[in-house]
Each structure stands twice: as C-alpha cells, then as structure tokens.
Amino acid sequence: MFGINDILGRAFFKKELTEEEKWKILNSKRIDRKVIKYLMGKLSNLHIKISGENEGNLFELMSAGKLEGWCWQTTESAIVFLNDDDYIERGNLKIDDRIPGYYHSWICFQFNGTEYVLDPCLDFLCKKVTIQEYLKLM
C-alpha cells in the first residue's frame, strides 16, 4: 500500500505522485457500509439512460464507468432523491499535470452528522474534508 511516508518522501524530493499512486490513495479510503447502504436505499430508484447507448441503475453504470462525461446530468438527476440540505458542488478538477483541468460536478450529502462526497462519474465516495482539516493532516 502507498502510505503517508511515501507521500512525504515524494514531497521532500519534489517528485509528483503518478496518476496510479493518486488513485491508490483515493481508493484506499474506507467508507462505512452504513453510508453505502443509505445511498443505495436513497438512489435505488434512479434509472439512467444515456444517449440510447447505456441504460441502468446509477450504481451499475457507476461501477461500469459508463457515466464519465455525464457529471452534470447525473448529479442533477441524483440530487432529487436525496435530502433537501444535500447539494451539488461544482468546480475545476485537475488530477494530473498532463491533463488540463475540467469543470466537474459531484454531490455532497450528510449521513449521521458527517458530510460525504459522492462522485458518480468518477465512481468515488469519500468523507468530505475541509481545507482546515486537510492542513492539520499535513
């Protein structure tokens, strides 16, 4: 596993993380099964059809990587099934220096007093961390 010592070593020598290393870090974060069960319950009736090519449940399409490029439409559809205080967040994502940043959408939602991020297009679910929390970790 790629851990904090590896990240700090890279930072010390001013070496960028590879895209694969970044994804390993992101995918290593564990989410409580209760959060996943909650989301699956809320979004189980969301059926998506994309340009007549791909059709199915949100989670099926997520795991198959079929929602890429459809972030705006997917988050707009999904937010209807969530609570009124949950929201869509938009911004520029830049994962790699070789790829220019792009405008993207994801969903922020509350579960048991904790805020989470669901990105259906990148097949990603994590606890939301504020910049202040992030800086404390560094």
Q: How would you characterize this protein structure?
A:
38% of the residues lie in helices and 25% in strands. It is α+β, with helices and mostly antiparallel strands and 138 residues long. The protein folds into two domains: 1-30, no CATH class; 32-137, no CATH class. Strands 3-4-5-6 form a four-stranded antiparallel sheet, with helices on one face. It is globular, with a radius of gyration of 16 Å. The two termini are 19 Å apart. The mean pLDDT is 82.
Work out the strand percent: 25-35%
What number is the mean pLDDT? 82
Helix segment tally? 6
* Count of strand segments: 6
The topology string of helices and strands comes to HHHEEHHEEEEH
Q: What's the number of domains? A: 2
Class from helix and strand fractions: alpha+beta
Q: What topology, given as strand order, has the largest sheet?
A: 3-4-5-6
- Uncertain runs are none
* Biggest sheet features: 4 strands, antiparallel
Q: What does the radius of gyration come to?
A: 16 Å
The best one-word shape is globular
End-to-end Cα distance, whole Å, is 19 Å
Fraction of residues in helices? 25-40%
